[in-house]
Amino acid sequence: KEINNKVCDLIDGCTLCVHGKISYIDELDEIDNVNVRLKENKEYRLGRKVKPEVQWAGDGVIVLSMFLPTGERTSHFASLEIARNLGLKETEVIHKQIMHPAEGTYVEVKGVLPFSIDLEEVRMPEIIPNLEPEYVEKIVREKNLKVVAATVGEDEHSVGMREILDIKHEGIEKFGFKCYYLGTSISIEKVIDAAIEVDAKIILISTIITHGEIHRINMRRLNQLAIEKGIRDIWNRALERLQFLIP
Ligand code: B12
């Protein structure tokens, strides 16, 4: 016989590929036999409907993980209440981990989803294809696009920003962007001044998120200062010009 892609082609398919080849022996109990069980989850095996599954097709088992700022016992029962309120059936706590006692408890709750999804009714947004890297690079080089980047305020986390920029990390340099990385804990003023100095059309900043809203303050300051220094408009026009990137 001709050998195709799968080893089991030699025997016209194995039982994993050709379900009809499975010979069931569990036929004695009239109420609980293999045919009854197969009938119960037929629609999930035929691919028309879908439910999360763990043990068998369409069992509907789902696991929720949550952190509650309460002690172990309270978290246990509160998490079950949450799962029940979400509509899950047969709820059960399967894992608990007390974080620092002053913080609370991490809980995992198992439950059964009481509904299924009809795959023909699933709404999916249209796939927007990514621009070809060669196309992006061509435009970037033609326009000689420059980028000024820094972590601002008192942010010392340089690694993420370098990842975005560095060619060795597949960063935007590989598309031909000329990147001016100013470093860490840079003032917003310095970022704006550098952008003006090198005629950068793009500014990338990274900043720590804090309860004091320092991230929002920094972003607003960047916007405000760009307006004050007269480059926000230029920036907006640059963005308009960048629209041509979208075919
Ligand atoms: C390494 C690290 C440090 C190192 C940084 C070394 C360095 N040179 O970068 C050191 C030890 C200095 C450090 C110090 C601190 N750290 Co720290 N640190 C981390 C850690 C473990 C990893 C960060 C990292 O490099 N990740 C790898 C990179 C590749 O991922 P990334 O940073 O997320 O970047 C990606 C995206 O976010 C995105 N991205 C990032 N920047 C940008 C920018 C733009 C424009 C775009 C488009 C995308 C983008 O793209 C990147 C690539 O995929 C994180 C925890 C974590 N697991 O994330 C904490 C973490 C960031 N640190 C934290 C904290 C609190 C601190 C300290 C305040 C701790 C302290 N009490 O002293 C200090 C602050 C120092 C300071 N002044 O900034 C918190 C920040 C929480 C917050 N509110 O934002 C984190 C989240 C840890 C935590 N859960 O508590 N830290």
From TrEMBL:
Q: What is this protein called?
A: B12-binding domain-containing protein
Q: Record's SUPFAM superfamilies?
A: Cobalamin (vitamin B12)-binding domain (SSF52242)
Indicate the segments forming the B12-binding domain, all copies: 144-247
Entries under Pfam families matching the protein: OAM_dimer
Provide a Gene Ontology MF annotation, just one: metal ion binding
